[in-house]
Amino acid sequence: MADSETHDTHADTTESINDSTASTGDEATRIGVDVGGTFTDVALSVDDRLVTAKVPSTDPQHLGVLEGLYKACDRANIDPSEIDEFAHAMTVSVNALLERGGAKTALVTTEGFRDVLEIGRQDRPDLYDLEAEKPEPVVPRERRFEIDERTTPEGVETPVDPDDVRDLATTLRERDVEAVAICLLHAYADPENERIVAETLREELEVPVSASNEVLAEFREFERTSTTAVDAYVRPAIDTYVGRLVEEAEDAGVPAPQIMQANGGIADPETVREHAVTTTMSGPAAGVVGAAATVDDADTEGLVTFDMGGTSSDVSLVRDGQAARTTDAEIAGLPIRTPMVDVNTVGAGGGSIAWVDAGGALRVGPQSSGADPGPACYGRGGTDPTVTDANVVLGYIGPETALGGEMTLDVEAAHDALEGLAEEAGLESALEAARGVYRVANATMTRTIRSVTVERGHDPREFALVAFGGAGPMHATALADALEVDRVVVPRPGGVLSAFGLLAADESYDAVRTVGVGLDDAEKSRLEDVYDDLVGDVLADASDREAARVERAADCRYAGQSFELTVPVDESFDPQAVATRFHEAHEQAYGYAMSESIEIVNLRATATVPGTDPVVRHDGAGDALVGTREAHFPGIGTEPRKATVYARDRLEAGATISGPAVLEQAESTTVVPPTWAGEILADGTLVLTREGVDN
């Protein structure tokens, strides 16, 4: 067990409140609550203070949300009814997909296209695995129904018969379906038949109906069908959860929650209940938004955001202050084409279980101990060795540390769990097993960072690494060393940055429509008509049309290509400007541009109602020195080093830290190895640089 020498002025880490010397009293009181796989994080902005809290996630999730809300209000000494704005991110939809726990869904499609979901694309999950299997569709074949109709890209050829739809409604009612997805061939080009089917089924049935022209008015039948099916599949769960949370909030005197969408913007409850698929990456998106709001990337190529929680780690990019977005994503093997923050997730978090495979190799994750029983060190009956247990054995988390501000540690249980792993792996001790777990977890996360940087043409050495989540700051410098990144930034609310990101999020809505026309042949008036419709759609959802900022874009490609790049479009469509931007985007993405003709595939519009960034003041005061304890740093010798332990919230602006050191907060711990040094900025942000590297 690592030795621990405690200083007389041990900091109280049971409460995370950033007090200020004065209170203006005119700031809106806002709260953000983010549900993770293990913990539910809370950030409360009241006057000029930031109050944070962390509680175990619960099932159902809304119980933990309310517990965290009450806990933060109690710490801030306010009544919940004093909250002016409430923003929320959750994992309800993504859990339904990962666990296949969504609604009993039916799919209605054009005659002859019943098996689109099953056929998918010709690509394989593993090219050389002869036994590789594609993920099971969320709608089994016996609940996929065909209807006689035909629409081409030019319009309706065979109208749908409403009586056929009513007969189908009877069948669906007899099958006790809980949701219906409708995806008719080429409904993106002419939705008339699909609208008739949707309207008829909504009249006949008492279950949610998702129509592809409302979910994703975009070509590619498989992806459009998959996205629409996912929307229907998770919609009842989202509807029930959000409805219950709205009621509970009303009972507590709290405003209805604004829900974080996968695109990085918040929306009102009714909008997300009708467009459930937009919530699939709610929590990870909030973390990236929080990183973009708290860290200035002006001096770098951008930011690599690294969010390591209890169950998984999420990695993304921020460039020019904006989170990278994508419309080409998969969750649990299911294509989802709605706009979302481009996040890569890997099953390596603090609660990830370490194990030995059949070949004797040490592995970490993706299985997780969750919040209950959790890692062995939680003292809740867990016996599996986890990444958190390894960090305890390495000395990064001390025996006196109170996780989440209140959860005491069982250090002996952590050692016992790692000792058992060492025996199974043929290692000498629990310490050797902990070193191995730390290295394996870091290698997994390093590969994920390379996938969003090197594999996309970005040099990670030109980026700063922003570390957050409960476990992120413990591993960040090790990842930076592996990637040759010279600067690591840990925001002050790093342990709950996803919750903080909810406070900084804008309101955002997206719309898309396929046009499929050559740029040289495009009629400007036709494109402007489509843009007018798209802009009208997104502004209809905005809470304040006058304050909304509208951006237009186009998905373009060279003739003959099967993939597109999105480029911005001016207020008045300028073909030459679009061509120039596309050539530049193609060269940046792939290293070359071509002289081929350009096609406009989709037109897009986004409406954004800017939010108000929360005030983050840092007035570190008091003796920040907690003491020292022995810690081990894999890759820097085999002997333990005496690390100085600080209460991070008590470090004043301008304070400098030399490694080895450990900075403790209620919600997270930061490890500073011997080869790194840090400085506290005015807002409490910690900037770490490798010694000898010019900041």
Number of helices: 16
Largest sheet: 9 strands, mixed
Q: Structural class, judged by helices and strands?
A: alpha+beta
Strand portion: 25-35%
The low-confidence parts are: 1-25
Principal-axes geometry comes out as globular
Report the count of strand segments: 37
Helix residue percentage: 25-40%
The Rg value, from CA coordinates, equals: 26 Å
Oligomer state equals: single chain
Domain Acetophenone carboxylase-like C-terminal: 528-676
Protein name: N-methylhydantoinase A
Biased composition (Polar residues): 14-25
Biased composition (Basic and acidic residues): 1-13
Care to describe what's here?
The protein is an alpha+beta fold and 695 residues long. Among the domains are: 30-96 and 240-279, Nucleotidyltransferase, domain 5, CATH 3.30.420.40; 103-239, Rossmann fold; 507-609, 2-Layer Sandwich (Dna Ligase, domain 1); 625-690, no CATH class. Helices cover 30% and strands 27% of the residues. The protein has 16 helices and 37 strands. The strands form nine sheets. Strands 15, 16, 17, 22, 25, 26, 33, 36 and 37 form a nine-stranded mixed sheet that branches. The longest helix has 31 residues, at 221-251. The two termini are 36 Å apart. Residues 528-676 form the Acetophenone carboxylase-like C-terminal domain. Residues 1-13 have a biased composition (Basic and acidic residues).
